[in-house]
Amino acid sequence: MKRWHTYLFAGCCALCLGACTGNFRDINDDQSGTTDKELEADNNGLGYRLKIVQQGVYFNYDYGKGKNWPFQMTQNLSADMFSGYMHDSKPLQGGSHNSDYNLQDGWNSSMWQFTYSYIMPEIYRLEQTAEELMPPFYAITKILKVMVMHRVSDFYGPVIYSHFGTHGVEYVPDSQEEAYGHFFADLDKAVEILSDYVGEHPEANEFAQFDLLLDGSYTSWLRFANSLRARLAVRIASVAPEQAAEEFRKGVNAPHGVIESNVGNVAVDASGVFLNPLGAINRSWNEAVMNASMESILKGFGDPRIEKFFEPCRNDLTVTEEGGGTAAIALKGEFHGIRQGTAFSHNYYAAFSRLTIEQTTDAVLMTAAEVWFLRAEAALRGWTDENPEFCYEQGVGLSFTQWQAAGLERYLQSDATAADYHDPVDPQNDIAARCRVTPRWEEGDSNELKLERIITQKWIAMYPEGCEAWAEQRRTGYPRLFPVRFNHSKGQSIDTETMIRRLPFPATMATSDPEQYETLIDALNGADHGGTRLWWDTGKNFR
């Protein structure tokens, strides 16, 4: 990451954070730059705004300051790494930063800042106009609102959701429990509106020209809404199991069903104006490399998807030793990842395995594989009559198909286990494998071990979507990721083995808007640091 990125971001924060992350009374000052003239030129202002929101889920809306570094701040230097997927190969901030829990506010406040500065104002305006002008667009707005904001809540906890834009109470946050209740209610409303509209206008496709995530079909958006409900239901399985089971069944049993095949996968289309920012971070900046946890599990399992996700090292490496001599390290043709939290101060890891993601790679948000793993867990918990093993194998199979990987049958019968991690640059970073499951389903295993198997494969299948992977890893503890070697969290607020649980609210809020900051802390019901568990993060999977 170029140093000027940090300076630019700091400047933006100085100008925007106080007004945009704390003062919700100013939401009418939409910073997205959408003008009346632009809306008129499109002949459909609703569709224009919906495009902005769709890009904003995977923050890549170009508001005049560049597309790639905001995504790096919003997701790649936090969730993508904390999930065990990736790691920056460069020694940013002198080697001590988010990786070793020396949390960087300028990075970690960006999800909050960008969402409330650019995306939520567009959603708010759509909610004020679309319901009367174009009901199906209003329904899609609600689905996208839930998709955007559950990610924000899963980063921080409490959010400004139900009162956003409501003058007089716009300060009032929702606790995460309250926010999830509103998420389900908004999905209810969206599904009701879309179902009625499809029933009356089965051939309607007005949204097709604006659709960046699906095929323009309203029935596809209904399946997406139902699948999203299933995702959120499973998220609260340990904290509100009765509600979770009810919401899950409501989603999977809905008339239009859920996403079941790869043709229904939800992804931001990168064939047009949108470019995948992770592709630029990977290819142009060389700042996205395989994580050691990925190496351990994929190599240990002999998983053929490894070569679909990552590239083998391109060259061997020469390192400088103490005393000035050099040593050759054989890397070429092998897969190597970086262990989180080693506080390295060199550039040798730039030779490790890069991602295969390009700027033209669609940015996947939800897949059929994920939905089948959700169904596997629901069946395991007794919420449905489905067979957990069948759903599990469907999930693995659809992931293999999605990535065009061979050897599925052999893989599903494999008793391979995760591999110990060996750092060819610094052996002090070596660590024994943590993951204890195999790809093969074992009917005689305990429910806890079956859940570990489901989530481990779900984690592999959701790559490279780090936001969801990090949330599920925190919720379940699976897969078993490598802990940081060095823990530089402030006051040791983050436990090394328990790992980071959330991101703190933007630091500037405490001084620029202390009233709102206090309301958020009250709703969090815990200290504002990375070690505080969120509402759905109970630390146990079964009661």
* Strand order, sheet with most strands: 1-3
Distance between the termini: 44 Å
Number of continuous helical runs = 21
Mean pLDDT: 91
* Largest beta-sheet details: 2 strands, antiparallel
Describe what is shown at a glance.
Helix content is 47%, strand content 3%.
Provide an overview of this structure.
With 543 residues, the chain is mainly alpha-helical. It is 47% helix and 3% strand. It contains 21 helices and 6 strands. The strands form 3 sheets. Strands 1-3 form a two-stranded antiparallel ribbon. Helix 4 (68-76) packs across helix 7 (110-133) and helix 8 packs antiparallel against helix 9. The two termini are 44 Å apart.
Layout of strands and helices, then pairs:
Elements: H1 3-22, H2 36-42, H3 45-57, H4 68-76, H5 79-82, E1 86-87, H6 105-108, H7 110-133, H8 135-156, H9 176-200, H10 218-235, H11 241-252, E2 266-268, H12 277-283, E3 289-290, H13 292-301, H14 306-309, E4 317-320, E5 326-329, E6 363-366, H15 368-380, H16 388-402, H17 408-412, H18 447-462, H19 466-476, H20 509-512, H21 514-524
Antiparallel strand pairs: 1-3, 2-6, 4-5
Helix pairs in contact: 1-7, 2-3, 3-7, 3-8, 4-7, 4-12, 7-8, 8-9, 8-10, 9-10, 10-11, 10-15, 15-16, 15-18, 16-18, 18-19
Keyphrases for this structure?
mainly alpha; two-stranded antiparallel sheet; globular; 543 residues; 47% helix; two-stranded antiparallel ribbon; disordered N terminus
